[in-house]
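User: Quick sanity check before I run a bigger batch. Here is a single chain. Can you write out its predicted 3D structure?
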Amino acid sequence: MERYLGALLIIILTIFAKTFWQPPAVLGTSTLSPTEILPINQPVTTESSFTIKLQEESEAITKKVVYQDDPETEAGEEKVVEEGSDGKKTKIFKVTYSLDGKEFERELVSVETIPAKDKKILRGTKIVWKTLDTADGQIKYWKKMRVYATHYDSRCKGCDEWTAIGMRAGKGVIAVDPKVIRLRSKVYIPGYGMAVAGDTGGAIKGNIIDLGFEDARTAGWRARFIDIYLL
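Assistant: Done. Predicted structure follows.
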C-alpha cells in the first residue's frame, strides 16, 4: 500500500511543478514565446541616427548691358530704352546630417532659374560738328568727353621710345583705351594742346588718358579731370 501512496505523491508533485513553477528569465532574453504575436494596435518605434533638412541656395545672375547704335542721336549721347533686371538661380538640396551635426550626404532636388533681362541703351552715332574758341584758337569738334588725365614719358616703367602704333613717344602723343577713343584719333586737350591717340597702357581703362611728355618730371602737369574734344 505504501508503494502506491509514494507513486501517487510523485505524480501529484510533478503536476504541481508544471502548473505553478516557471524557470527564471535569462537576463537580456525575451519572455515571449516564438508563437506569440504583438497586438496590432501596439506601436513600434525606431530611432534614426540621421536628420534630413531641405536647404536653399540662391545665386544672382547679373544683367548685361547691351548697346545699340542710333544714327538719329548725336554721338556721345546715350538713352536707356530698357532698364532690365538681374536674374536668379535657386537650388534646393536635401541634406542629411549625422547626430553630431556633420553633413553626411547632399542631394540636388530641384533647380529654378529666373533669367536676367538685358539693360538696353541707345548710343548716338550722328556726327554734329561744333566750334569752340580756345587758348590755342578756334577748333571744330564733334564730341566732348570728361576724362581723368595723367601723364608719362618714355622712361616710365613698362614704356619705351615707341608707342603702340609706331609713333615716337613724347609731347603730342597720348595713351587711350581703344574701346573709348579710337587709336589715331585727333584730340584737343585744354592746357596741353593738340594730340594724337597713339598709345595704350595697362592702367589706361575707360575714361582715362595718359598725356605724353619728353620729361614727365618737369612737365608740370597735375593729374585731374578735364573735358577733352575729339576732332
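The two ends are 148 Å apart (CA to CA).

User: Great, the batch can go ahead then.
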